[in-house]
Amino acid sequence: MHLQSAYTPNYFAIDDILATQERTPCKFLVNVPKLGVKLNPASEKDDIQPGTSLELPMWLVQPLGSGRQPVVSVELPRMYKEAYREVLKADPNAVDLHKFSLYFYELGAYAKEFDSRGDVAEILLHSFKGRFRKIMDLAHNTASDSTTQDSLDMLERMLYNDGHKARMKLNAWLISSGIPLVAANMVINHRKRKRVDIEDII
């Protein structure tokens, strides 16, 4: 996959960079000196005190919230919380995933690390499996326009565009080739051999 559209983890991927800009609620567990004003311009103290709640980008939350001694406790981004998961469980095709998040699956790959119950990983798989048939159906039967992709996240848009281009190339080849499709010699010979075997039995 190309660097500019590669999915997690890829330091040089534009999609990965944009997805990890999403801010995530977290609470500091320890005192962090000299970063109070830098991470929170509204703060009057130089240090970040334990118990301070901030929204930080996922690229920063991931190293701070993981490891044996995490600096922050991390909440799930709102689109992966129970209320949203229930909607996706009911019917993932009825959801405008674009409004949930432009990088729903990409961000979810990071968010699932902070979900000890595994609900986020489950809903990501459930949503993708439920929506994949719709995406492929759109790619094969719908003209390529922006309104078709309005409810898709960036990964789904990439799949839709690739599927639509492949369908257009196949249609162009079928029209321009002018070569009738015939059965392969192996298939013809197999049918003849089968006919001979039946005649021998009779």
Notable characteristics:
DNA replication, GINS_bundle-like_dom_sf, three-stranded antiparallel sheet, 51% helix, mainly alpha, 202 residues, DNA replication complex GINS protein PSF3, Methane Monooxygenase Hydroxylase, Chain G, domain 1, nucleus, PSF3_N
Task: Walk me through this protein's architecture.
It is a single chain. The protein is mainly alpha-helical and 202 residues long. The protein has a domain at 79-202: Methane Monooxygenase Hydroxylase, Chain G, domain 1, CATH 1.20.58. The chain has helices at residues 14-19, 36-39, 58-65, 82-90, 97-100, 104-111, 119-141, 154-177, 185-201; strands spanning 23-28, 53-57, 72-74. Strands 2-1-3 form a 3-stranded antiparallel beta sheet. It starts with 13 loop residues before the first helix and ends with a helix.
